Amino acid sequence: AVFDLRVVPGRKMADVSMSWRIPRAPVEYMTTVQPAIYERFVNVLGYIAERRVMQDLTRRGVPYADVAYRHRSSASGSGDEMFSLTVSLPETYAQTAVGSIARTFAALDAKGAEMGEYRVARNQYLDRLEDLAGKSFKDNSEYVDRCISAFMTNASLASAKEKLALHNSRQLSDSTQLRLFHDMATALIDKSRNMILTCVTGRTELEKDKLANTLYAAWSDSYNNPSPLEALYSEPKMQWPGYGPKVKIKEVKADPM
């Protein structure tokens, strides 16, 4: 991993970010179903990573302002694909955030996701796609951006509604989906090859060596002993957002006056 430490004197909040890049998808694949399936899995990875980092920080009593995952896809431009997860929190906890991020991605690299959390994250993604597909009004800029992307990168012109129909038509078992997700996560995550850890903080006593030691120690420990999280999602009394079967309303009747 590469370490980028930026000290801003007087700053009270720290932004700790893990980012990495991979080569963009080949042009010949951009108009196939592959980008839509890939988009689903990388979004699921983001939902799971965000939740795991938040859980780890909460368990350690660390306050945080935001945990945000971002993905710049092949359809967004001509460069490599970019991924990042950023934690914003009081600057005294910057080093703790490094450990939380490292533990999260090391465990995902080693073991992938548990079935329960995969289902939660998948349903979150499909719910968001359904919301986009159901928008009655779309700004012209949305169509312009899609056309530019198609011209510049050969990206698909498929709408959110068409992507949702594709996902709903795929009759893959949850166990097969989880296996494919793990294969993708393992291929993406590699601390020794393409990861950059960036820390923007006001703490002048922080050093790159300290951040490196924290990251490698936390990564090694979590990779070799990934924490079991399935109990958090399999407890029937716990109602996680997006977990469980979907229910659709077939009709709506007005209340009698």
Give the quaternary arrangement of the chains. Answer: single chain
The ordered H/E elements are: EEHEEHHHHHEHH
Number of discrete helical segments: 8
Strand percentage lies at: 15-25%
Question: Which structural class do the helices and strands define?
Answer: alpha+beta
Q: Poorly predicted ranges (pLDDT <50, ≥5 residues)?
A: 230-249
Give the N-to-C terminal Cα separation.
66 Å
Averaged pLDDT: 80
Morphology call: globular
Largest beta-sheet characterization: 5 strands, mixed
The whole-angstrom Rg is: 20 Å
The count of strands amounts to 5
Task: Give the neighbour order of strands across the main sheet.
Answer: 1-5-2-4-3
Helix percentage: 40-55%
Structure description:
It is built from eight helices and five strands, in the order ββαββαααααβαα. By secondary structure, it is an alpha+beta fold. Strands 1-5-2-4-3 form a five-stranded mixed β-sheet, covered by helices on one side. Strand 3 (66-72) and strand 4 (81-90) form a beta hairpin. The longest helix is centred in the first third of the chain and has 26 residues, at 34-59. It starts with a strand and ends in a 23-residue tail after the last helix.
Concise synopsis of the structure shown:
With 257 residues, the chain is an alpha+beta fold. It contains eight helices and five strands; from the N terminus they run ββαββαααααβαα.
Lay out the secondary structure.
Blueprint: E1 2-7, E2 13-22, H1 34-59, E3 66-72, E4 81-90, H2 94-111, H3 115-133, H4 140-153, H5 160-169, H6 174-188, E5 195-201, H7 208-224, H8 230-234
Parallel strand pairs: 1-5
Antiparallel strand pairs: 2-4, 2-5, 3-4
Helix pairs in contact: 1-2, 1-3, 2-6, 2-7, 3-5
